[in-house]
Amino acid sequence: MKWTGRFKNYGMAALRKDLISGCIVGIVAIPLGMAFAIASGVKPEYGLYTTIVAGILISLLGGSRFQIGGPTGAFIPILLAIVMQYGYENLLIAGFLAGIFLVLMGLLRLGALIKFIPRPVTIGFTAGIAVTIFSGQIGNFLGLRGVERHEYFYENMKEIVLRLPSLNIYSVLTAGICLAALLLTPKYLPKVPGSLVGIIISTLAAAWLFPGKVTTIGSAYGAIPGGLPGFHPISLAWD
């Protein structure tokens, strides 16, 4: 059988590399997807489902041989605002309609219009996302309990200050170990993904050194369902 298109000249060596990279991306994407779901104000299993389904669709329908699909933090502030104002069901509707708009923009070749967007706007948008995500993770880094999410930045900062008495030193140590792995791995092991090392080392440290002292996904949100969710149509209405 002779491969054509993007599978032209595809052999066992390429398959072996794809399997290794797929395993690494999968291991990193699972906790990353759940973390982004939590930061967006929804249950962690929703991020897990999205990571699985979107990853498969991107791989099957994407146009590049070297494309990797995974969770992105860029939409966290947008998704969180929609969830807080309109609820999860309306978030699904917004995502569905956004997908339709993206398909139409692709068919109409509107992607070239991005070159007219001012560079300061792009940088400001990216910096704003970084600040929003960073501020949203301070509470988790410090292990604070009872932190409520608010729509505005200063309200979230006030919430963190009010919850400082509940600081968990074990959470800080675990997060510090992961952060150190992220910073040191590229320097000393450039061929090894730092995020993968950080996840493994910090998880082992929390399990062995601080058993029962650090909040986990299971203790905070309950057991993750073992199967895929039941599919049901989105209830669209003109309002």
Structure described in brief:
By secondary structure, this protein is mainly α. It contains 9 helices and no strands.
Rg measurement, Å = 20 Å
Outline the biggest β-sheet. none
Number of strands: 0
What level of helicity do the residues show? 55-70%
N-to-C series of helices and strands: HHHHHHHHH
User: Strand pairing plus helix content: what structural class?
Assistant: mainly alpha
Count helical runs. Answer: 9
Average pLDDT over all residues: 84
End-to-end span in angstroms? 53 Å
Give a description of the structure.
The protein is mainly alpha-helical and 239 residues long. 63% of the residues lie in helices and 0% in strands. It contains 9 helices and no strands. Helix 1 (12-39) packs antiparallel against helix 2 and helix 5 packs parallel to helix 6. The chain is globular and about 60 Å long. The termini are far apart. 13% of the residues are buried. The model has no long low-confidence stretch (mean pLDDT 84).
